[in-house]
Amino acid sequence: MSAALQVTAFGLAILSTLFLLLATCTDCWMVNADDSLEVSHKCRGLWRECVTNMQDGVRTCDQYDSILADHPVKIVVTRTLMITADLLAGLALATLVLGLDCITFLKEDPCVKLKMCYGAGVILGAGSILGLIGSVWYAVDVYVERAMLVSHNIFLGVHYDFGWSCWLGMAGSTGCFVASVLLTCCFY
After folding, report:
1. Where does the signal peptide begin and end (predicted)?
2. Distance between terminal CA atoms of the chain?
3. Mean predicted confidence (pLDDT) in 124-140
4. I need a surface site. Which of 28, 60, 138, 187 has the fewest CB within 10 A?
């Protein structure tokens, strides 16, 4: 049963880490669509902003000036949290691979392998919390930005939605958290 639980947690951790990496690298965290005209579809992300013309499908992207330039707090904090979550999830995966029972590394000392699985679970849990904070921070800021525009009667035709990158970040963080719980709590 322990080996099946390890393999399940490992598969979930790989999938969730892939989701976190995709969320960090892609640029559709916030969708800006003009409902009244349906002329363009704008995706804003952590690294650039892309506009797609709905009539001919042409996509144009503008890179942000520099990584060190002044950016809104939501972009800087989300970048930092998501990159840290990616690094922690990658470290946890490397530790977990070495701690799996089906890997012959340190086969003569199962206590060390079990501790490696626990350690991977703790690292994965820390990464998942950081990724979830980053994704939710960005989503809440998108909601607050929309609410402020509506309360001031500005740009009522523009509709803000969470983009698929934001949803991928939340799903990846949640999956990493579940894998962490499986690794740290369910081996007894």
Report:
1. 1-33
2. 11
3. 93
4. 60
